[in-house]
Give the backbone structure.
Amino acid sequence: MFQDRYSLAFKLYPYERSPDQDAASPVRHPVVVMGGGPVGIATALDLGLQGVPVVVLDDHEGIGMGSRAICFSKRSLEIADRYGCGAPMLDKGVVWNLGKVFHEDRKVFEFNLLPEDGHKNPAFINLQQPYFEKFLVERIRAAQAEGAPIELRGKNRVDAVEVKDDHVVLNITTPDGPYTIEADWLIGADGASSPLRGMLGLDFEGRVFKDSFLIADIRMISESFPTERWFWFEPSHGSGASTLLHKQPDDTWRIDFQIGWDVDRKEEMKEENIRRRLDAMLGPDVEYEMVWSSIYTFQCKRMERFRHGPVIFAGDAAHQVSPFGARGANSGMQDVDNLGWKLGLVVRGQAPERLLDSYDEERVYGAEENILNSTRSTDFITPKSRISHTFRNAVLDLAEHYAFARPLVNAGRLSLPCTYDGLSLNGPDTLAGGPQRTRVGSPCPDAPLGDGFLLSQLGNGFTILTLDAEAPETLEEDGITARRLALSADDDASGALAARYLGDAAAAVYLIRPDQHVAARWETYDETAMRAALRRACGKE
């Protein structure tokens, strides 16, 4: 059964009494993370690897049961790679790049999310969230053994929070009774229902979608469905208004049925009624075992601001979207990627506190982009009027025969990393003829580099990336050091490196942030401009 398969992963951080519980007065910590899901655990790992002491408080002892996120994007895998746990995720996950879209019983078209070569990671893997969290925690255990100052405290429920001018006071309940600690910074990563958000009287703004979806996770061995994302509009087998199929590890398959808003949930959740839908879709002769099922609705909402003094929200606690497009956990990982290096600099005194305002600026921007894409997907999948339904089906009919209509089909535009166009940390972009995909604010695309790949060479700090250009080996500006990665277009015989970073330019100089977003770029190295861009990227200008 499902619980048996994840029993080893469930108690990842069983309750242990902390010295803080016996302290005469509340102990002050630099960073406390509230919530032990993937976003909270990844935040602790990011900070701990920088040497920043961090405590994670979770009211459970590890991974909760149930089928949660299953699609992890290329960007999330690249972030996990920098943390040192990408390889086991890739080994365990089901790799896929291809998807197919059907209308009734006809294939409308298929798509490839990563048609080009020269990337270490695939477009997506399907991997159940319990495994994703397990690999993050295993990396934390290895980092702890190496001296990383990370504490994971299970069965530590935060019951009250008091926000002061420069710190936060937390009242915590454990199996041994209550205690109190303080934190310079508190990260709210406690999920969609976010008790922390409620304690502070903060709410979401956005839209609730009036439709219901039935999830069924089943275990089966079948050659009929390849390792691809299949989406049906109005499937002829009649199992729902739309149906989505994904393969997961362990011969498990995730199936989503759109079942409508005005349904009897208790009736729909009866095993015989779930099996009726599954049998209609899979065929009467397919053998399968039901693993888990649930009915969900969703909303596209976000907090107005993600930073509230010393309290910062991330992941589902800060923003929520529909599951179409796999933007939930993946956008949360981008939050961590954005917040980690900035908070690390602030805690170490290397950057002013206002740098954290750029986390709010950039990730609100990212959340708005995700909400827009998610809302458009949902409106296409669930038409709200007869006219919109007619338009939707006309687009599907055209897309079956004409390529121009296929970009209009929206079966869940899949998660891509955000490009921070025009935001405050961005420096100059004077690379004439430079590729649009590596413009300032964009995430760095991978490229082959000898026996390895570019992103692995960029590392976790500020990098001066040069292609056929001169620059010093290191540059220090106001306590921040940027190191040079010197490359040539000739280093990659495939031409991918030049295509992605040079374009029509003969040479290029990039300033890359620790989260591997482009901070600035030029045709040649200019020390004055580089120093100014580095200060700006650290919130010092």
Q: What stands out?
A: Confidence is low (pLDDT under 50) at residues 1-8. The first strand starts at residue 27 and ends at 34. The longest helix spans residues 355-381.
